[in-house]
Amino acid sequence: MPARLLLLRHGQSVWNAAGRWQGWADPPLSPLGEAQARSAGRHLADLGIERVATSNLQRARRTGELIASELGLGAVEVDEGLRERNVGDWSGLTTAEIEERWPGQIDAWRQGKLPSPPNGEADMVPRVLAALERIAARGGSWLVVTHGGVIHAVDRRLGAEPAPIYNVCGRWLDADGTTFTPGEIVVMPEVDGPTTVL
């Protein structure tokens, strides 16, 4: 059964605002993040989204709830398979603090020369794809509120052209069975301030 999934990054969290790496840590949305989610809901109103699934981390779940409310949809469905990569010992630190404690490791990890952050998760793609397959198997048009690292990892696995994924931005995926085809990038208008890449 064909399905269409819009993978959307959550709104700004309080740790995004502070420039802190999050991973499995669970900080809430900032006031700006709440405003971004409500605005995203209004911008998605005419896209035929029928259901909303989210990561179990509150920054994604709350974003999904606010958007679902704007769209007049029911309760969101939560799947922990959609959560961000576990960044291990880097969680809660700024990029400068990570560079100070582990010089050069962020670049090495991004270049594939380091399998994971220290005590972090090496390959989250199997669990993420399994979650996306569970959603896609039900057919229809879904908003899937997840995390920047998740969307980047899926893009890489599917061979999509890399693109920055800011808060409340993302990418469409067309699903046919367990086959996913990357579609267009979705960029929301800014809401009262810059969006965050972290």
Write the layout of secondary structure elements.
Layout: E1 3-9, H1 14-18, H2 31-43, E2 51-54, H3 58-71, E3 77-78, H4 95-101, H5 105-110, H6 125-136, E4 140-146, H7 148-158, E5 170-176, E6 179-186
Give a verbal description of the structure.
With 198 residues, this protein is an alpha/beta fold. It is built from seven helices and six strands. Helix 3 (58-71) links the parallel strand 2 (51-54) and strand 3 (77-78). Helix 2 (31-43) packs parallel to helix 3. The chain is globular and about 45 Å long. The model has no long low-confidence stretch (mean pLDDT 93).
Quick overview:
With 198 residues, the chain is of the alpha/beta class. Helix content is 34%, strand content 18%.
